[in-house]
Design goal:
This protein is α+β, with helices and mostly antiparallel strands. It has two domains: 64 residues, no CATH class; 66 residues, no CATH class. 25% of the residues lie in helices and 15% in strands. It is built from four helices and six strands. It has a four-stranded antiparallel beta sheet. It has a two-stranded antiparallel ribbon with strand order 1-2. Strand 1 and strand 2 form a beta hairpin. The longest helix is centred in the first third of the chain and has 13 residues. It is elongated. The N and C termini lie far apart (68 Å).
Length: 161
Amino acid sequence: MGGTGITTTWAAPLGAVHKAAKWPAITCMNIWKEQLIQDKIVLRGGYHQVLDKPGLGIELDEKTIKKLTVDYHWIDKVRHVYRYSRASGEVVYMGASKEDLQRVYPAAALPVCERGSVTLPYEDDGSKKFKEIWEAVKDGKTLRRFEGKKRAPAKRRYYSE
């Protein structure tokens, strides 16, 4: 669970009263430079004390919050595309975020561990090729095509009894 000190002070009482709470002992608060609260969270023996009264018991760091506030209301979504290439030369492009890939990949009926295959992010380089692929796969769709070397047609074999 990631977040600032606000998240940590929220998670502590929730974890203390919820009988099914099995959250890890870390809320990743230290990955952020700013905690957005005035006082540091005190940990003793690996534990954070929960208040015995309503509220979180914190004061927000208004100055830091104001400094970090942005002047826009949304961020344009990144155009995520993954490219699954098989040893046979077949390539499948999937329009999905990392989270959605867990749904899109099995829905495309792709093998899980096929020798010689690899799945990698396909970078949005602003090219016409990327744009064409993106248009084909956006909204969780897939695009299958052959991108390997052209193979000679298989020779017919005749067997006699």
